[in-house]
């Protein structure tokens, strides 16, 4: 007798799936429960009609259920927006000044500052870097330092119609833009040490979100271990 053929798998709940097999005797339905608390999905049939040979080889249906379960979990994770990102959007809609306090200004622009500093004569690099980094570090306490850029960011945050997790290409582009390069020649040892701290912090950035509105998409990312965001600053 030919073993019934798997014809359908559907999700019943977060961890339960229903498989339909069709054979010479008609349809047979089996529930499959997934336990992935240990990090690896373990699929158990209810009732177990594989051990006695009724449904033949269980590996195809286990593979199908495992793939569906992982895809559903990945989609669910992508749909969850970090509360900090949502709070920044809501804050911008009500109070642009409040948004200023949610942005990690040094980490948002340190990479750009260093790349620009590397293009100027070596004898000028130390004081230009110090001036730029000082402004970024003071932005949270002195609104005048971001008076030009903050309204633009507030409009982008406040006008966001959708918050979407970045795909691999957009994530890579954003993380590359926030990456902090090695300090160029001409900086002091103390400045180089500060760059190293920023570079290590930039390396912890992981999840990137895109704010979608009337203008082009705006990448933002939560800074691990803080209540701050990095953001791509307007040119």
Walk me through what this model shows.
The chain is an alpha+beta fold and 235 residues long. The protein folds into two domains: 5-79, no CATH class; 83-231, no CATH class. 44% of the residues lie in helices and 20% in strands. The protein contains eight helices and eight strands; from the N terminus they run ββββααααααβααβββ. The chain has helices at 59-79, 83-94, 96-100, 105-117, 122-138, 149-158, 168-178, 189-202; strands spanning 5-11, 16-23, 26-35, 42-46, 162-165, 209-212, 218-222, 229-231. The model has no long low-confidence stretch (mean pLDDT 88).
Please summarize what this structure is.
The chain is 44% helix and 20% strand. The protein has 235 residues and is an alpha+beta fold.
Rg is 26 Å
Order of helices and strands: EEEEHHHHHHEHHEEE
Q: Figure out the total of helices.
A: 8
Mean pLDDT: 88
Q: How many E strands? A: 8
Report strand %: 15-25%
Q: Supply the number of structural domains.
A: 2
Widest β-sheet, arrangement of strands: 1-2-3-4
Assign an overall shape: elongated
Largest sheet: 4 strands, antiparallel
Content-based structural category: alpha+beta
For the termini, the CA-CA separation is 71 Å
Which residue ranges are poorly predicted, with pLDDT under 50 across at least 5 consecutive positions? none
- State the share of residues found in helices, binned by percent: 40-55%
How are the SSEs ordered, and which strands pair?
Layout: E1 5-11, E2 16-23, E3 26-35, E4 42-46, H1 59-79, H2 83-94, H3 96-100, H4 105-117, H5 122-138, H6 149-158, E5 162-165, H7 168-178, H8 189-202, E6 209-212, E7 218-222, E8 229-231
Helix pairs in contact: 2-6, 4-5, 4-8
